[in-house]
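Q: Hi! First time doing this. I have a protein sequence and I read that you can turn it into a structure. Is that right? Here it is:
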Amino acid sequence: VSTIVKEWIDAGLLMETELGHSEGGRKPILLSPLHGAGCAVALDIDISRVQAILTDLSGETVLAREQFPTQGEDFPRVYERVCQAVDRLLAQMPASQYGLVGMGVAVHGVVDLSGLIRFIPRRGWRNVDLRSLLAERYQVPVSLDNDGNLAALAQQNLEQASLGPEGQGSEALPQSLAVVNVGDSISTGLITNGEVFRGFHGFANAIGHHTINLDEPVQCSCGKYGCWEQYCSDGAVIAYANSVLPQPISSLQELIALIRHQDPLAKQVVDRFITYLAVGLTNLIFIFDCQSIAISSELLSALPYYLPEVMSKMVLPITHVEQVTLTQLGKQGAILGAARQAVFQFFRDTAHAMEPSP
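A: Yes, that's right. Below is the predicted 3D structure, encoded as structure tokens:
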């Protein structure tokens, strides 16, 4: 252990801090990671906007942030603006031993096991190799995954951290966790026994496009009919609200304000959202037998007292779910998960480099 610790200290990634308490024998030497030894960039490419952050090696401390809308823009234009945002972040990067160690990218679409963007229905992107483009431009390792998977990893880390440094009570961690991201699209991250469940092709979390209404006459952007996303995504909720409200709205915040003022038509909109959300969550539980579900939803986060109504409409005659909560990470789960993946890749590569040659 001392040899391994010395290697990490010599690498500038760990430092000795102070002597710890001892109830007998030599006092332990406490260690602390040197998070300022490098930086990572994380991207969250949503349907209508892009976020970019610069973090230290904790993957949590945000040093700089960029954000811009991308509604209706094609891939070449979005890629150009992404690179401009990353360049601005790198211009603010503090001097450090390792500099930029890697990049992590969260994409709100279908991503295969190789990190290739296979399909983003709402954007019309197919077979886009953004990971290779960024790796070639910035000459660092790039990891790219679906936003649901990355949000689930971030949620898992949050719950692990809540147990404290000793991991006391680790048996309380859910063995089967689902994180449902409800935004411009709907995606899910599924974790079983500590690992992300990806499926044979990597598409296991495309739950937003499972059918919940066979009678839906309007075609979804994916080509099917009656997808969950057509009823519970933010855009779908606003579209339905504008079909029943006397005055059109353009944001969820306007709908939330009407609900808080007890507008009966706005209440009709949220009731429909709750009903279809409960249907989708019920299907998720039956398919994956989730122990715990964490939901990221702007609408529910603003109106958390509706969560019990969602749970009351989940019909589970032969099974159950132990816990349904709103994630504390909100919409930041995916991008924080992407940052941590970039940092994890750096530490893993560093560890491999320290291994003795055979």
